[in-house]
Each structure stands twice: as C-alpha cells, then as structure tokens.
Amino acid sequence: MMKFIQKIILLVLMLSVAGCGYHLRGSGAGKLNVNKVYLQIQNVQLIVPELREQLTIRDVQINPSSEGTDRIVKLSNEQYDRRVLSVDEGTGKVTEYELEYHVWLEILTSNGRSLAEPQDISLIRDITFDPNAAVGKFDEEILVRDDMIRSVANSILLRLQALE
Question: CA-CA distances (angstroms) from residue 51 to 25, 38, 68, 160?
Fold first, then answer.
C-alpha cells in the first residue's frame, strides 16, 4: 500500500512540473519559426559563441551570407565593463564591483528592411570582492559575465521570436 501511495505522489509531482511550463535548457522549448539566420557582426566577440549555440539548439541554421535567410541579426558595439562600486574605508581595498554588458541589436528581413529600431541590450550586475579570496572572486566574475552574455543571447532570441 505504501509503494502505491509513493507512486501516486511521484506521478502528481511529475504532472505538476510538466504542467507548469518548465523545460530543461535545450529540450526544444522556445523553438523559433525562423529556419535560417545570418549573423552580421561588427565589433562583437563575447556573445557570438553563445548565440550560435542557442540558435543551433533551436534548430536554426546559421548561413554564411544573407542570401536565402529568413532574418539578418545585426550585432555591433559590444562592451563589457567592470567598475568599482565601493571601497573599504579602512583599507582602501575594493569591496564591490559593477559589471556591465552591452550589445547593439537590429533585426532585418533578408532584403535588408529593418523590422524594429536598433536597440541597446544591456545588463548590469553587482558582485562583492574579497581580497582574501581573490582567485575565487575572479572566477566568480567570469561566471557572472558568462551568465550575463547567456541572458542577453536569450533576450535576442525572444526579440527574434516576437518579430516573426
């Protein structure tokens, strides 16, 4: 009897997770209605690998030229900055940084007609810094930066989906 109740509880939990719209990353959620995309990039490096990966996961082919594509995703002027937010007044050492990431986006049709005004997509995150754990904090900064880039890439895909 106890096994039966456990199976019922497990089934209810599985159905509630499946019914809430939760999907594992790369599980096919968020398929785009765009089949072929051309990435036109200028002064952009950090986001390109992440955007390519996310497009591939969603079965979107990345064309080497704009001919025969559904959309042109134009990315330019990528910037990643780190600024000091606060300093320990006793030691003068940095205790907090602000990380900022920007990239300009414009989405065009295959014939070059703009579907929306060019826009600056940006994210800002704060991280604390402990000089006694400098190596770990530098690793944390890299993780936060990568997460910011992943979020901006997701935002680009959402905009691409909305303009279909």
Answer: 14, 12, 20, 12
d(CA 138, CA 61): 35
Among the listed residues 138, 120, 121, 118, the one whose alpha carbon sits nearest the alpha carbon of residue 129: 138
Block residue for tokens 């939760």: 22
| pLDDT tens, residue by residue, 32-57 | 788 899 999 999 999 999 999 999 99
What is the dotted CATH code of the domain comprising 27-162?
3.30.160.150
Domain ranges of the chain: 27-162
Residue 22 has pLDDT above 70, yes or no: no
Q: Kindly give, in sequence order, each residue whose CB lies less than 8 Å from that of residue 115, ignoring residues fewer than 6 positions away.
A: 71, 107, 108, 109, 163
Q: What is the pLDDT of residues 103-139, one digit of tens each?
A: 999 999 988 899 988 999 999 999 987 767 766 677 8
* Dist CA 27 CA 15 (whole Å): 17
CA–CA dist 94, 88 (Å, integer): 6
| Degrees to nearest 5, angle at CA 156 with 74 and 21 | 155
Three-state DSSP class for 88? Answer: coil
Region 144-151: mean pLDDT is 95
